[in-house]
Amino acid sequence: MSTVTVARTPVRPARILLHLFLAGAALAWLAPLLWAVYAAMRPYGETSEKGYVSWPDTLNFDNFTNAYQQSDMTHYFVNTLIIAVPAVLLTLFLSSMVAFYVSRFDFRLNLALLLVFTAGNLLPQQVIITPLYRLYLLIDLPGITMSGKLYDSALGLVLIHVAFQSGFCAFVLSNYMRTLPHELTEAALVDGASVWRMYWQIVLPLCRPAMAALATLLSIWIYNDFFWALVLISTGENMPITSALNNLTGTYFTDPNLVAAGALLTAIPTLIVYFVLQRQFVSGLTLGANKG
Amino acid sequence: MSTQITAEIPEAADVPPPGAAPAPKARSGHRRLLTRRDRLTLGLMAGLPTILHIALVWVTALASIALAFTTWDGIGFDSIQWVGLQNFRELFEQNPQFWPAVQHNVIWFVVLIVIPTPLGLFLAVQLDKKIRFSRVYQTAFFLPVVMSMAVIGFVWQLIYNPDTGLINSFIGANEPGKYIDWIGDPDLNLWAILIAASWRHAGYMMILYLAGLKGVDPSLREASALDGAGEWQTFKNVIFPTLRPTNTVVLVVTIIEALRAFDLVYVFNGGAEGTELLSILVTSNIIGESSRIGYGSAIAVVLLLISLVVIIPYLVSTFRKERRA
């Protein structure tokens, strides 16, 4: 074994080649984004005169500030927060309850229940959108939502996100909870602890790693959602940022440099979450997949 | 964690659990200890999320099927009329966009599984070699997966735009007469979008395969190396076969991605000629100028049937494994 490590210490040409390849590929992968950053940092006047493929005279962040202020992006970021925060919390809460039931109480239903949840999560959204859209128009909620209906409301979006995403989370969490020793809950039950206490004080705290991973994943997914809001929100003002981007382009983002700036600004929160919580994100993504 | 467990076990031993049976039976013992209130709590805990999920996902999916056999203008339930297979007949025989859309969905899948998926596997294998800067490379390849499809659509527009985009500016095709219309030309635009989709998909697949490779027993690799097998032979004969579970997930994920493809195309060119997809056709029947509920549902049913052909076998095999475990 030691001879192998000794033999590996000198840098082999194959390794250098591999590094060259990977570095080149990584740069190529980042190129579209770097191009967007480059376009966003140049004034429109300069690019229309000299063309986009040209050496820059000025580089600044004016397009970013203009794109942000002209379109009142704060408003759309707040819209996203109003939808994403309750949706993530509620999804985790509800799916962990289902997972708790399915993994701890061996009733006959549990496999079927998990099957229904998982299958529902795999359906393309367009399969259910037509009736869902009609349903949202039919449900009157006077005084509860601004629109008086489930349609065109943050509540409506929260509900569909929760319903759709809880499938995946229930599946992941039930797999996770199954790995917790059964003695834990058995002992509590014998002690006379209620089912709710078992869930809230024993099982849930132990699921923290899985919950953190799922929370990261869900936040990014829900933030990135484009389709639900596109169809289920009619007022441009009520749209979360990702879907609003489409309307803002053409109205406020009138040249490619502003479009680039607007798109990059929209991506920034996801990038921050990703860089800070990369491990959570990746483990969330593979928690579900590993089990296949 | 382990201290908590040991702290509670002695108490459990004081009151012998019913039957004092091994683990599987003790689980049903759980039930016998439940009070009425516990049962109610459990019912609510499992029931409420299930009702929400079924109401919004499955009832609507079934409603799609039912509505596919009707025409409805959406105003009042009285105007729902049963028309049998008429929507489907019209869809299959008269809609000039339907078959191209099916074809494009199939192309989408084939391209994703043939190009970025093997590329993702290749990258994963390289990055799994305990190589320096592995994290940096991973971050670069995975970055597109974190961004929304909508943002990706806008970013790639900056590359493909016939007037101002990177490609045409670079090759000098941005002058009238020399235009290459990557976004509008029906012979080109699907491939242009698929490059963007592949850009994202490769990173996604890389992460799935990296996780799969972590699960491969290192002694397998050592044994193979001792037998004198080369890198490629080891991969082909030893590593790849053990990645079977990951391959299944990758296949399912890729098919579902191909069926779900929507945002990118919608942002890129709104699903113009050359890039029609089933998801785009369904959506344009809701938010387009002509809202045809029954007809849109018929397209959704086609999408549903294709999805179920993939989902059902996958779940059956997954859960069969679970039950055995």
From TrEMBL, chain A:
Keywords assigned by UniProt, alphabetized: Cell membrane, Membrane, Transmembrane, Transmembrane helix, Transport
Ranges that cross the membrane: 76-102, 109-133, 153-177, 198-223, 258-277
Subcellular location, principal: membrane
Membrane topology listed for this record: Multi-pass membrane protein
SUPFAM superfamilies (UniProt xref): MetI-like
Record-linked Gene3D superfamilies: MetI-like (1.10.3720.10)
Chain ranges of the ABC transmembrane type-1 domain: 77-277
Subcellular location: Cell membrane
Pfam families assigned: BPD_transp_1
Source organism, top-level taxon: Bacteria
Family of the protein in this entry: Belongs to the binding-protein-dependent transport system permease family.
Protein name from the UniProt record: Carbohydrate ABC transporter permease
TrEMBL record, chain B:
CDD domains in alphabetical order: TM_PBP2 (cd06261)
Any one cellular-component term (Gene Ontology): plasma membrane
Spans traversing the lipid bilayer: 40-69, 106-127, 139-159, 190-211, 293-316
Residues covered by region (Disordered): 7-30
Main location: membrane
GO terms of biological process kind: transmembrane transport
SUPFAM superfamilies the UniProt entry points to: MetI-like
Gene3D superfamilies: MetI-like
Superkingdom classification of source: Bacteria
Subcellular location: Cell membrane
Alphabetically ordered keywords of this record: Cell membrane, Membrane, Transmembrane, Transmembrane helix, Transport
Residue ranges of every copy of the ABC transmembrane type-1 domain listed in the record: 102-316
Pfam families in UniProt: BPD_transp_1
Membrane topology summary: Multi-pass membrane protein
Coiled-coil ranges from the UniProt annotation: none
Entry-linked InterPro entries: MetI-like, MetI-like_sf, UgpAE/MalFG_permease
Family assignment from sequence similarity: Belongs to the binding-protein-dependent transport system permease family.
Name of the featured protein: Sugar ABC transporter permease
